[in-house]
Amino acid sequence: MTIKPDLSTAIPADLGAVHFVGIGGSGMSGIARLALGAGHRVTGSDVRDSANVQALRDLGATIAIGHAAEHLPDDVDTVVVTGALWQDNPEYQLALERGVPVLHRSQALASVIAGQRLVSVAGAHGKTTSTGMIITGLLALGADPSFVNGGVIEELGVSSASGEGELFVVEADESDGSFLLYDTSVALITNVDPDHLDHYGSLEAFEQAFVDFADRADEFVVISSDDPGATRVRERLSHERVLTFGEAADATVRVHSIVTEGPVSFAIDHEGATYEATLRIPGRHNAINAAGAFAVLVGLGFDPAASLEGIARFAGTGRRFELHGVVDGVSVYDDYAHHPTEVAAALSAARTVVGDGRIIAVHQPHLYSRTRLFAKEFAEVLEQYADETVVLDVYGAREDPEPGVTGALVSERFAHPEHVAFIADWQDAADHTARISREGDFVITLGCGDVYRIVPQILGSLERERDA
Question: Ranges for the Mur ligase central domain (predicted)?
Fold first, then answer.
């Protein structure tokens, strides 16, 4: 069993010396960076060394590799964990034995950002990109926000920073209800596509959490005009100021004239004026994300034209359509997509830039429950948008294995099985991917687990295949 966050736990007035268990993740490392900036002594541990770990060390954190009881300092005041850790984690267990306060990462973040004018970005998909667009736009406008994002912002090289401005922008996680902890001033809801039903138990409860999140915003709410779940949530809101964005004719911020060949371009209508932009990233979904970010910025009172110009500078985040290498004309990308809607968006974006080449998807299902619930939907979008698919085994994350739930649940649902292969062994999967690829193809790994770690194997297999 993984650790279930107790969001009712009292958050200490002062975190003091903080120990992060699993400090290398994008979310945890971002919070640790802020804690260091606030003057806290920071220690931590992670299963492997990484660029995030080294960056924190350079800022003064003491970090051990591996999880062991001896890595927990004797004089620690607060321990921060994630829901991805298992109950038997030795550092977690020792903290409980000592009576040291143990906080979920969202509670630690709530402590660090307390009293700030908070822009919280929530939604089943598009959070990290939308958050990055808002941050990039605010920086271009001279607002100098503080922020914590779920991925490294390409042009900044970090996922968090402390700014001098009054605004704090945060990617708010709805997966376990922790987005309800924040004292939000401005709430952006990108969409309310059904997900995380393992936590909420029902679609009704999932959508109610978004209603609660939005209605608690002090200033205003920005929400999709197009997403069916968002529409249901909007109808239940009691908030006095709600801005909508999307392609709907009645949207407060209406996006239209979307051209998806290469970097996406589009137009936005707002209060009788039209503004045009071309992003540095591809994909129709990113035009929609940009409209949501635009709605936040104009809602805050910034100039519309300057806001859109700033948003257009956004160059992406780590693990979102991220190019890792090209071998003999075969490009290898990685993307965080782990829900059928996200997979469709990522592959659609790839289609706009692949030209005459083919798309080869390497899909790692995430969570046993999600694989069981959405195997058919994953198969449908992979078969529709990719030319060839390699399915890996399930990345269980916080869940225990379920009998009979493997990646084969997805591959067996393809209507044309000749275009899919379920290969559990990563090296065999990398070799198979290299054999079927040819010049001009895009290989794209998909998943929010550790599938990015297969990318060097794929690049190596491509090199060996070309040398053979």
Answer: 121-296
Q: Is 127 an annotated catalytic residue?
A: yes
> In this predicted model, what pLDDT tens digit does every residue of 87-136 receive, in sequence order?
899 999 999 999 999 999 889 998 888 889 999 999 988 999 999 999 99
Rounded to whole angstroms, the Cα distance separating 333 from 318 reads: 11
| Residue 171 is a catalytic residue | yes
Buried b / exposed e along 200-239 (16+ C-beta atoms within 10 A): beeeeebbebbbebbebbebbbbbbbbbebbbebbeebeb
Burial 413-423 (b: 16+ CB within 10 A, else e): bbeeeebbbbb
Instruction: Say what the pTM is.
Output: 0.83
Q: How far apart are CA 225 and CA 221, in angstroms?
A: 12
Question: Phi then psi for 271, rounded to 5 degrees?
Answer: 50, 45
Looking at mean pLDDT, say which of 24-33, 309-318, 421-430 comes out highest. Answer: 421-430
Determine if residue 128 is labeled as part of a ligand binding site.
Answer: yes
Q: Which helix (H) or strand (E) holds 386?
A: none
Residue 127 marked ligand-binding: yes
Quick check: 218 pLDDT over 80?
A: yes
d(CA 131, CA 137): 10
Q: Is the pLDDT of residue 11 over 70?
A: yes
Amino acid at 239: H
Residues 6+ apart with CB under 8 A from 4: 83
pLDDT of residue 196: 56
CA neighbours within 13 Å on the CB side: how many for 356? 3
376 is catalytic: no
Q: Rounded distance, CA 385 to CA 242, Å?
A: 35
Which residue, among 158, 38, 54, has the nearest Cα to 23 in the 3D structure? 54
Q: What average pLDDT does the chain have?
A: 93
Answer yes or no: is 124 a known binding residue.
yes
User: Is there a binding annotation on residue 262?
Assistant: no
Active-site residue among 43, 128, 184, 190?
A: 128
For 248-260, how does the pLDDT look when each residue is reduced to its tens digit (9 = 90+)?
Answer: 999 999 999 999 9
Distances (CA, A) of 397 to 2, 128, 130, 284, 413: 9, 20, 25, 30, 23
State the catalytic residue, choosing from 127, 174, 207, 465. 127
pLDDT number for residue 199: 61
